[in-house]
Design a protein that fits this description.
Strands 1-6 form a two-stranded antiparallel sheet. A two-stranded parallel sheet has the order 2-3. α1 packs antiparallel against α7 and α5 packs across α17. β4, α19 and β5 form a beta-alpha-beta unit. The chain is built from 19 helices and six strands. It is mainly α.
């Protein structure tokens, strides 16, 4: 959790104030700046799939963390050098002043800008799913007490995330504003060093999961084998399908007790389900075949692919929520720039990007309270170890997130009304800030922070707990991929909305560099409507989803128990190795 806090501290300080840097220092237009930020953040989270794949398939989560942590550190150093050396960035000018012609970075300047950004994106993206998965690997999912501890771990991992965000959005963003972006990027590099040191200190005590070969190869084998046998009819009795055994006979569904009794503990069996029956053809035994893994797969291997397919709709339903997050890190920051940023009557000015710290102040207190008070209370009512199911927790967050955009739309309408009434439509940089405190935008951050406490933690725990053996980092990466697609969707929506709403001299709702002349409030209402429709869609898919209930040893469980469960030995001791002696 130390690395989690330090890494998010470093990346949040860059990402959450990046729009100010590329707009004011690099002189890109406001829509272009917003898209650069959303593409950067989106790339970070999309690359989490690569990090999960490398860890699960080849080198394990711990080594992946070290390698890509160093790459991320290199990116911060490149960004700090560019921000410090005058020749590596455009000449200073006021982009909001129509009388000045501001140059955008080209050639070497653009190369250094995007080299630094995407080294950070590569390192951070590949790091993120492995930090969470590596922590989850330290618990035994076959033990009830350790499962509760694992749930607590996910809550406190999110707490460390909140603490890191809070420090980044207050202290480090303040340093960026007062001392310059070069110093701010240098601080990000320094805290990244602290994060890498913190995780290496515990090396002798870690339990590391061994990589189990290419995840994509296993999935591809099922798809190829099922396509190869597409003309065959699936047997009505799933006992005719193939499964690995300690004896040479094919899997017999009527001998589950014998399978559990005689199968070694590292045989991670998953019992047959009736969904996606076309994939079962990959496990049909054909006596004329040579037993190639591309022609004959086990029931467990087929069920692993089914599990991946089953979680995709849940993953997709969280994309719109992360599109909302993209607005809070871009347009909401620009809203704050037009407002009075003084703290009370003092001369201290709150950096607009630091407004994103407000929900994390709340969550630093709320997350431990949730775990210590609400979870035990709900556990007593529902009998579930986590209080409420992971899907219920995700759904609550998706519902709440709608009201973040409702709040944002109402506040933006108020802000624009103040601009009209004050005669400040042309922008604050020429005539002073609006007579409206920046804290008017705090509620939209608070509401979203509350929604994220439910959805973000629930989603991570959901993906990790439902992961088949050897796919923990990969499926955990889907959490971050949701962020990626949300930020990419934001960029697409901005472009589409501008194109659809433009006519003649009017460039669209979000085409002007001056928010007072844009229609950001209407864009927020559009997102609120999309969010509510997405919540209704989620209700359907969450009711359709079936949990991967773990089957726990000992083998003396009854056949009925086996029949109603699936084996999930993803935490079997045999697939772990200690890094220490």
């Amino acid at each position: 959790m130390g690395l989690q806090a330090f890494e998010i501290m470093a990346i949040a300080a860059v990402g959450n104030n990046l729009i100010t840097y590329v707009f004011n220092d690099m002189h890109y237009s406001l829509p272009k700046s917003a898209n650069i930020v959303t593409n950067f953040v989106g790339t970070i989270f999309l690359l989490s799939i690569l990090g999960g794949f490398i860890a699960d398939s080849y080198i394990g989560s711990f080594l992946t963390i070290i390698v890509f942590g160093l790459i991320e550190l290199t990116g911060y150093i490149v960004m700090a050098v560019q921000a410090h050396v005058p020749r590596l960035k455009p000449e200073s000018c006021n982009i909001l002043n129509p009388e000045e012609t501001c140059k955008q970075p080209k050639g070497v300047q653009a190369f250094f800008l995007f080299l630094g950004l995407y080294l950070v994106a590569l390192g951070s993206g590949c790091l993120k799913p492995n930090m969470i998965a590596h922590g989850g690997d330290q618990f035994d999912g076959n033990d009830a007490k350790e499962r509760r501890k694992m749930s607590t771990y996910f809550n406190f991992a999110y707490l460390s995330f909140c603490i890191g965000e809070l420090i980044a959005l207050t202290f480090i963003v303040w340093i960026q504003s007062r001392c310059g972006m070069d110093v701010g990027f240098g601080v990000s590099a320094s805290v990244m060093v602290l994060g890498l040191v913190s995780i290496t200190i515990g090396t002798p005590f870690y339990r590391n999961r061994l990589p189990q070969g290419s995840v994509f190869t296993r999935i591809a084998q099922v798809l190829v084998a099922a396509a190869h046998k597409r003309k065959l009819r699936c047997p009505s009795d799933p006992g005719m399908l193939h499964e690995l055994r300690t004896d040479p006979y094919p899997y017999n569904y009527h001998m589950e007790k014998a399978i559990v009794k005689y199968t070694q503990s590292d045989r991670q069996l998953l019992f047959h389900t009736d969904q996606f029956r076309f994939l079962d053809k990959a496990a049909i035994v054909d006596q004329n075949e040579d037993g190639s893994p591309w022609k004959l797969c086990t029931v467990t291997q087929v069920e692993q692919v089914k599990l991946v397919i089953r979680v995709i709709p849940i993953f997709a339903c969280t994309i719109v929520m992360n599109c909302i997050l993209a607005q809070l890190q871009t347009f909401s920051v620009e809203q704050g720039r037009t407002m009075d940023s003084r703290l009370g009557r003092s001369n201290f000015h709150v950096p607009p990007a630091s407004m994103q710290a407000i929900p994390y102040i709340m969550l630093v207190f709320l997350v431990p309270l949730y775990d210590a008070v609400l979870v035990p209370f709900l556990r007593g009512m529902t009998g579930k170890e986590t209080g409420i199911s992971q899907l219920q927790r995700i759904g609550i967050g998706l519902f709440i997130s709608t009201f973040s955009m409702v709040t944002a739309a109402l506040v933006e309408a108020k802000r624009k009304q103040v601009a009209r009434d004050s005669g400040l439509i042309d922008g604050p940089d020429n005539q002073g800030p609006l007579p409206l405190t920046i804290f008017w935008i705090a509620p939209q951050f608070l509401v979203f922070g509350l929604s994220e406490m439910f959805t973000a933690v629930g989603l991570i725990e959901f993906f990790y707990s439902q992961s088949p053996a050897g796919m923990q980092s990969m499926l955990t990466a889907l959490t971050y991929c949701s962020y990626s697609f949300g930020f990419y969707l934001s960029g697409v929506l901005v472009s589409i909305v501008n194109k659809v709403t433009s006519n003649g001299s009017n460039g669209g709702w979000l085409s002007d560099n001056n928010l007072n002349k844009d229609h950001l409030d209407l864009f927020y209402w559009l997102l609120a409507a999309l969010s509510f429709l997405n919540f209704l869609n989620y209700i359907f898919w969450s009711r359709w989803f079936k949990y991967n209930s773990p089957f726990h040893h000992p083998a003396s469980q009854t056949s009925a128990d086996c029949h109603s469960s699936r084996v999930n030995a993803s935490t079997s001791p045999d697939v772990f190795q200690n890094t220490g002696n």
